[in-house]
Specification:
Order of helices and strands: HEHHHHEHEHEHEHEHEHHHEHHH
Structural class: alpha/beta
Bound molecules: zinc ion
Largest sheet: 8 strands, parallel
Length: 352
């Protein structure tokens, strides 16, 4: 007799990637509290917990918490610990491969020291739990384009095989992609792959077009405004542009009043899927969004009406859109999908 799997267990076990994930957004409240104690930060546990409360009326978002977390990363052990814990948690949620981002410019440690601490922590986690991690240093676009050039030059001058590309995050409102073209060109010329946060707050779709045409991004984080232009949607569909999309994205969640019918019907990710765009579900800031890779996929089914076939397509998109080697991708296509289909056979009847 075959044992039946609950939906949650199925979604936990299916092999998956998570390739839009901010390392600071994966720090648990407990770790933040202990680092705060270590550095005599003076925050009580309830003050720490407050950073992790998900409330539509909360005025301060994830970026506010990220700033506090960066200030607690001061030496090797801090980053090593955070990396190791993230590797363990991702593995517990069936993430076999992840590409994680962080902002080297926000940590008061030399780029090389911080990178080596993260690589060491993730490597130990890979040995203990199996999840493979690669790194994407991110431009904080709230700082200047010159700062971005400096950061990327530092990355290019100190190559690591685990550092495979660059990204760009923080608020897009006063920092359109074009002002960062030079940093992106330096990265591209050095052979790094490119992504950028784009249209997260319903910015004009032109920002997406600029990220593709001028920055020459290999994939896009968010990119929701693509749906505002039929032409751009068709172009992205025809060219197979990959979008990492976040079911727990705070902007739409707040805009539509939390977990409401409006949120469920207006979050763009379902329309992106139906438009034939290659979307890859991601956790973004899992601890701050009170989620993980399992719940990310669960939300697609329970909140956004995805079918198991849609989930399978998302897994395929993740394999194709991640930056692992083509040999790994071929292997994963074969092994992961076989595993997916075997687990699917054990899924309780209501989902088939
Ligand atoms: Zn993000």
């Amino acid at each position: 007799m075959t044992l039946m799997l609950s939906l949650e267990e199925f979604l936990r076990r299916i092999p998956k990637v998570d390739i839009h994930y901010h390392i600071m957004g994966g720090v648990s409240p407990n770790t933040m509290y202990e680092l705060n104690l270590k550095y005599h930060g003076g925050l009580s546990y309830s003050q720490i917990e407050d950073y992790f409360v998900r409330d539509v009326n909360k005025s301060k978002g994830a970026i506010y918490a990220l700033e506090m977390l960066y200030s607690l990363m001061r030496e090797h052990d801090d980053l090593y610990r955070v990396a190791y814990e993230i590797g363990r948690s991702s593995s517990n949620n069936g993430v076999r491969y992840q590409e994680l981002t962080w902002n080297p410019g926000e940590i008061a440690m030399p780029y090389t020291d911080a990178t080596e601490s993260l690589i060491a922590g993730f490597f130990k986690a890979e040995q203990d739990f199996g999840t493979v991690t690669r790194l994407i240093p991110g431009i904080n676009r709230e700082r200047s384009p010159e700062h971005a050039v400096e950061m990327v030059t530092d990355v290019v001058n100190h190559p690591y095989s685990e550092v495979i590309g660059i990204g760009m995050d923080y608020k897009e409102h006063d920092a359109p992609p074009e002002i960062f073209w030079k940093a992106y060109r330096i990265a591209k010329d050095a052979g790094l792959l490119l992504t950028a946060h784009c249209c997260e707050w319903e910015m004009h779709w032109r920002n997406l077009e600029t990220a593709l045409d001028l920055l020459q991004c290999d994939r896009i984080d968010h990119g929701y405004s693509v749906l505002d232009s039929e032409q751009l949607t068709a172009r992205c569909r025809d060219n197979g542009v990959f979008f990492t999309v976040v079911p727990s994205n705070s902007y739409f969640w707040k805009k539509y009043g939390g977990n409401t019918p409006e949120w469920r019907s207006n979050h763009p990710l379902r329309r992106m899927l139906r438009s034939g765009l290659r979307i890859i579900p991601a956790t973004d800031d899992p601890e701050l969004h009170l989620t993980n890779a399992t719940n990310c996929y669960r939300s697609l089914i329970e909140d956004f009406n995805f079918s198991i076939d849609d989930i399978r397509q998302c897994i395929v998109n993740g394999i194709d859109g991640c930056w692992a080697s083509s040999n790994h991708k071929k292997l994963w296509h074969c092994n992961w999908l076989k595993e997916f289909d075997e687990l699917r056979l054990q899924l309780t009847d209501q989902f088939e």
